[in-house]
Specification:
The chain is an alpha+beta fold. Helix content is 50%, strand content 22%. The strands form two sheets. The protein has a four-stranded antiparallel beta sheet with strand order 1-8-3-6. It has a four-stranded antiparallel beta sheet with strand order 2-7-4-5. β4 and β5 form a beta hairpin. The protein is globular. The N and C termini lie far apart (48 Å).
């Protein structure tokens, strides 16, 4: 990750990291030293249910999704776009089999690192400890917001929430996946969109 061509992606990556905790140049270089650029083809599986998640990714370009299988059908849990981190953090942390899949919905470009590479870096100083605290705090708050949205809002209100807060979902995610994510059938979502 050290050529001049990487400077724009690196600056985006740094901006994302700094949004959790301002890292020194030295710490940032440690971090980027373990990241590897990877091209991911549409439909490519980054994680399968039953595998232990041993890598995390930062999306430079493209869209990925995580989903589980429930009663033989895919249930979409999360979508990842530019500048998002992608990982099953439960599996990654505990080294237990994942209950989910992570698959590219579009051709994508990501920075990836393995847990084996990341642990020494993350253990190397207080700035990384604070980074992890802020990162997981943010992750928790986002997951909590999504959970509350699904518990408290009607299907119509969920769609309106997405329309207002995440309009890019409606532009880039096929209806069948969007309906699953919103916890409704494709037909119900089509009816709501027509209103």
């Amino acid at each position: 990750m050290n050529s001049n061509d990487d400077m724009v992606p690196q600056s985006r990556f740094r901006k994302k990291l700094d949004s959790f905790n301002q890292l020194s140049d030295e710490d940032f270089l440690r971090w980027t030293g373990i990241m590897h650029e990877k091209h991911v083809s549409k439909g490519e599986v980054l994680l399968k249910e039953g595998q232990v998640c041993r890598h995390f990714h930062f999306v430079l370009k493209g869209c990925l999704r995580s989903f589980g299988i429930e009663e033989g059908r895919e249930v979409n849990l999360k979508f990842y776009f530019d500048d998002d981190f992608v990982c099953d953090f439960d599996s990654f942390r505990a080294e237990t089999p994942s209950r989910f899949y992570i698959v590219a919905m579009e051709d994508a470009l990501v920075y990836s690192a393995s847990k084996k590479e990341a642990l020494p870096v993350l253990a190397s100083g207080n700035s990384f400890s604070f980074f992890l605290f802020r990162f997981f705090q943010d992750l928790y708050l986002n997951e909590n917001e999504q959970s509350n949205t699904f518990k408290l809002l009607s299907p119509q209100q969920r769609y309106e929430f997405l329309l207002e807060n995440k309009p890019h979902y409606l532009q880039r995610i096929p209806l069948i996946h969007l309906a699953s994510y919103l916890g409704m059938s494709r037909e119900t979502l089509t009816r709501i969109r027509k209103k």
